[in-house]
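User: Hello, beginner here. Can you help me understand these amino acid letters and fold codes? It all follows right here:
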Amino acid sequence: MENMPPKALVVDDEKYVCFIICDMLVMSGYLADSANSGIEALEYLNSHTPDIIFTDLNMPQMGGLELIAKIKDLLPETPIVVISGTADMQSAIEAIRRGAWEYVIKPIDVGSLQHVTGRALERARLISENRAYQERLEDLVLERTQKLRDSELRYRTLFDKANDAIVLIQSGCILSCNMKTGELFGHNPDDIVGSSLISFSPARQPQGIDSNEKLALYERAALGGTPQFFEWRCVRRDGGAFDAEISLTGLELNGVPHLLAIMRDVTDRKKAAAALTENACIRRELDIAREIQRSLLPAALPNIPGIKVACRCSPATSVGGDYYDFFTSTPGVLDIVIADVAGHSFGSALLMSEARTILHAKVRADRPPATLLTAVNELIYDDLCRAELQMSIFAIRLDIHERMLTYANAGHTRPLLYCAASGKVEELDTEGMLLGITREVEFEELRHGVTEGDILLLHTDGIVESENAAGEFFGTKRLEKLLTACRHDGPEVILAAIFDELESFVGDCPPSDDLSLVVVKISSLC
């Protein structure tokens, strides 16, 4: 189909003329069809598209001039050649006006027909190519224009949506800025254009340097090819000051030097950095406090024949309110205290430190547990009241010679005693209020005999009140079972078993209270 010769339509009411012209066209290498009237020609054109049309002017029913007009409406790009038997100049002009390309007088020979046909088809080809080229050019222009618009929109969007303020400066004057610049300075970006960075700066920077002079130095260096990166104190529309990091770069646009400033408010970042520094100092102070509090616990375990001891304190925070201690003022006699100040603050730790000092001063062989607790309460009562805190404490004296425990309780968690003779676990308890409730208070004191294999377990409430993810407490019963199960083990093994079981029980739940535990096992009696 691509190599088929051009097709012509010959329209003439004289069939013989149509035949002659068609024959000459075919001889010249074209395809040719004929119609014997204007109406027949239009019917043909409804289903065919010839490359060139030849028509007579004087035809019945529809003259050539009318046919030319209708063909132009139907096929405006198809060349039309008039072949007329009259040399009427007026008719020729009218035919050309209506859209005919050529006007030829009958009779026409083969050479003339070839010349006219070739010229008309060549002209049609050039017009078609020119139109196609023009359309391609228009499409290309539209495509490039759309790309430019898309690119401009894309960069404008990036420009306006950037998290940093972006400012274009020429000769100290702001030519353009994005939306973030408006947010930064509290102005409409259009109002910022035409002003300068100095308009949004205090007279002097925090170091006392003149803002005009300092900014001029930065601008000269950037225009000289050395990008500048500096911190700058700025002022918002409402007068509020803020610190910004500014990256200032020199560039040329159309041969004219410009400055590009990218700005970011670093006020919050500086505050966060200061807070981090402060937190680091606080953490360091907490570490020191933790080490100091740890040093207040016994540095060495008591060394009394027939008694083995293990202990551990695990604060819920850096510092805590738990405390235990051992005193051996008389051979064969061990005084033990375990205490808990409410809370996990520095106040709790300080009061516990005060209690330690008092205990070290008041524990004597002639001062049994109940008397000791009374003396401690009298001395620490005022400080506990001012701090609005209370302290629980359990004091116990183990006399290995008398095989006797003497104990008193000031509102503390009841210790457990595994009795080897019965194989049962008992709770040791007496009547007594928390320290800090009232100044005048008496504490009940009780005694309990001991034998070889007995195990004493003193603990703070953080052990039994530890919760798991289901909200269950570790509880005293678990502690009793563990103590019974480990009755043949040494204190260190018992201590480790309890903490391992506790860790498994709570899982990932963080401790809500300090955890302190003292295990004393009577291995032999005198």
Notes: The two ends are 126 Å apart (CA to CA). The mean pLDDT is 89. The first strand starts at residue 7 and ends at 11. The chain has three domains: 7-132, 165-265, 297-522.
